[in-house]
Amino acid sequence: MKFDTVIIGGGLAGLTCGIRLQQAGTKCAIVSAGQSALHFSSGSFDLLNELPDGTPVSNPEEAVAQLDKSHPYAKIGDRFTHYAQEAKQLLIASGVGVHGDSKHNTYRISPMGTALPTWLTLDDFTTLESPDELKGKKILLVNITGFLDFNTKFVADAFETAGASCQIVAISLPEFERLRQSPTEMRSANIARVMESGSVLETFIARLQEKSKGFDIVAVPAIFGLASSQTVSTLKKQLDIPVYVISTMPPSVPGIRTQQRLRHVFEQAGGYYMLGDTVVNAETGDGRVYSVYTVNHGDIALQADHFVLASGSFFSNGLYALMDRVFDPVFDADVEFDPNRNTWYNPSVFASQRYRTFGVATDERFRIKIHGKIQENVYAIGSVLSGFDALQEGCGAGVSLLTALYVADNLKK
Amino acid sequence: MNTQQYNISDNNFEQCLKCTVCTVYCPVVPVNPNYPGPKQAGPDGERLRLKRGEFFDEALKYCLNCKRCEVACPSNVRIGDIIQLARIKYSQKKPSLRDMILANTDIVGTLSSTFAPIVNTTVALKPVKAVMDSVLKIDKHRTFPKYAGQTFVSWFKKNAADKQELYPNHVSFFHGCYINYNYPQLGKDVVKVMNAIGYGVHLLEKEKCCGVALISNGLINQAKKQAHINIESIRKSVNEEKRPVIAASSTCTFTIRDEYPHLLQVENDDVRDSVELATRFIYRLLEEGKVKLKFRDTQPVRVAYHTPCHMEKLGWGYYSIELLRQIPHLDLVVLDSQCCGIGGTYGFKKENYPTSQGIGESLFNQIKAAGVQYVATDCETCKWQIEMSTPYEVKHPISILAEAIDVEGTMKLNK
């Protein structure tokens, strides 16, 4: 099989890069070992919330200059703002409605009810200008009876800590009771499907209207809009007070919809999305990769002019850690890590963890190295890269989106 | 020493991160609340069953074995295999007469082909359907695929076998039950296309049903027996006669390649890579420039391609799609990859009928909205389901190719 570009990894980074290249008229394939981390999405995309030393960031565009040169953003340099805007445009043009601005972070509400800074947020969710906005508000917190992936008590506690008053109610409808016959399947995606069927949404809205009288805000779990965002907008339109959709424990309904939307756009543009396949081998030489082999395609190689490694970090098996080393299972590219394992972890679980900054080493154009040799036609993007702690800095989605677009544009040249 | 690598079971359930992605893509869960879902039925339940077998839940029979959970799993857990192996190991339920009839495609096929006109007429009669529905629990909405009067094998022996040695290259053809008993035309199309590109087609020394229906209906010993016979014949073909094996059915191919070692412990390492779909075989030859196709001048046609579940698992939809795209005047719409709901014999069972149709509904709607003349797919049971549930005819990519090529022109190009 011959492609212009083969992308390894079908999550946010891989799909963004693929859409950009495919829409520019080149032929791409994405090989994805299973579904991506978008299925655990909070519904927001962070750009930069904190500097590595812990200083909070309110304007990512300004703060980015303070990052070390090993940070992926430093390689994007003065194109940072440009690509941040392009990323937002690409999402919106792909049917993934988002709001937010790279000049100032807003606040999203976490599944625990706390306000956390963020950049872009799916239009399903409400963002706050300041965590104090909830002060003095009367909030009705609604759950579906039997749905355990939404921790109402935590959320209510957090709302009350923020100065709001909160009442919890659970709504039962016969359609959800049917789902409860299999308690292990009483999950967000399945509830969302029921919500989208027949007249369930209408009945649910009617119940909300009746119960939310006298409240300022009604808060509901993110169990709307698996197939389309229509469900959420209908819900918001029909209630006369603001509806706050709060993300749930995985799977994330808005995240799944985002993944499926991006994949659809990539495929509509003529791209090949090979799901459930794993790259096992590559043909390399003279500082280039010529082709890769996968489990499913066996002896039929995927040849390409360019390769993009978007395989994710440890969680997505893009990086493997053994007792004494960290490696990339696809190309065995050079990885930046400390061979002294004792330095990998901080015993405080909420602290920044050094292992999270490990990743594939790249040159200024995000090209990978194998045994110290730059590979001319192989690029790495997203969380497989080294030099940042996505959780502590709050920059995971931003690195994925911006490096994907930066590399796609450099390939096109 | 890395102790972790020594602590992984055969079906790797320990790799499960509990991310629940599998439950999103299970086609059964949204329509059948009695099914515990792939995560619970698979890796979660496995932990319990390993402690005590009595934790086995008979509701695992609702699993379609579509493997879409495995395709979705980011950690490569063989969820579908775990579920099927648990059924094999722990299920106390004996297969019913109905299950045996549905599973024994070989025996039933042989009998039915012999008396094809009688069988076809009889099983289509309303009173017969009613009896099958109430006594055998085979749903009355189902129409059995018609049996052909002459099997593919007897046609082949009478009309094609002698000429095959004349070709410079050779393959063996695993035709499967459907081609042999119900739809010999597809087998004839395979022979036509392969001959046109210079390949002689041969039968395996012995061919039994691949066994997929036996596995899903719990007839494991018989499935193993048949798997051994097939693998021995495939070995003879590949190793002694130097003939790779091609098939037209995505499910037969998948079963021989992956279910034999994973579920039946019938090892196939030495020949696995030599068993593939005809579309992949032809694609490879075209890509390597070893063969060329010449097409007839035909009317423009718009076709929808449906990716069967086992095709999705194989990851080989690409080959059929690319092959169809080579046909001039054929405008291909690739449908979203989703289960049609039939699951082989699953959808024929009365208790599964509503589930089956519920699963397929969005696919049927997509097909109806696609504005196509017909549908293409590589699986015979998907074909039945789509033909029973939409107004469209369903054709195999090889049959479409057979219609589209100029046989003499193609032969000349490949001389």
Features:
heterodimer, A: alpha/beta, FAD/NAD(P)-binding domain, Rossmann fold, 2 domains, 12 helices, 23% strand, B: 415 residues, alpha/beta, Fumarate Reductase Iron-sulfur Protein, Chain B, domain 2, 4-stranded parallel beta sheet, globular
What does this protein structure show overall?
The complex is a heterodimer of chains A (413) and B (415). Chain A has 413 residues and is α/β, with parallel strands linked by helices. Chain A folds into 2 domains: 2-102 and 259-411, FAD/NAD(P)-binding domain; 126-246, Rossmann fold, CATH 3.40.50. In chain A, 28% of the residues lie in helices and 23% in strands. In chain A, helix 1 runs parallel beside helix 10 (253-268), helix 1 (12-23) packs parallel to helix 12 (396-412) and helix 4 (80-93) packs across helix 12 (396-412). The two termini of chain A are 23 Å apart. The mean pLDDT of chain A is 95. Chain B is an alpha/beta fold. Among the domains of chain B are: 3-90, Alpha-helical ferredoxin (Fumarate Reductase Iron-sulfur Protein, Chain B, domain 2, Orthogonal Bundle); 301-407, Rossmann fold (3-Layer(aba) Sandwich). Chain B is 50% helix and 8% strand. Chain B is built from 21 helices and 8 strands. Chain B has helices at residues 21-25, 38-51, 68-72, 79-90, 97-103, 105-114, 116-124, 126-136, 152-159, 176-182, 184-196, 212-216, 220-240, 250-263, 278-287, 309-314, 317-325, 353-369, 380-389, 397-404, 407-413; strands at residues 169-174, 199-203, 245-247, 275-277, 301-305, 330-334, 374-376, 394-395. In chain B, the strands form 2 sheets. Chain B has a 4-stranded parallel beta sheet, sandwiched between helices. The termini of chain B are far apart. The mean pLDDT of chain B is 90. The A-B interface holds A 1, 33-37, 39-40, 178-182, 184-185, 187, 189-190, 193, 250-251, 256, 264, 267, 272, 274-278, 294-300, 315-317, 322-323 and B 2, 17, 19-21, 23-25, 29-30, 33-37, 39-40, 44, 70-76, 273, 280, 283-284, 287, 312-316, 318, 334, 336-337. Chain A: Residues 4-399 form the FAD-dependent oxidoreductase 2 FAD-binding domain. Chain A: InterPro entries: FAD-dep_OxRdtase_2_FAD-bd, FAD/NAD-bd_sf, G3P_DH_GlpB_su. Chain A: One of its GO terms (molecular function) is glycerol-3-phosphate dehydrogenase (quinone) activity. Chain A: Belongs to the carotenoid/retinoid oxidoreductase family.
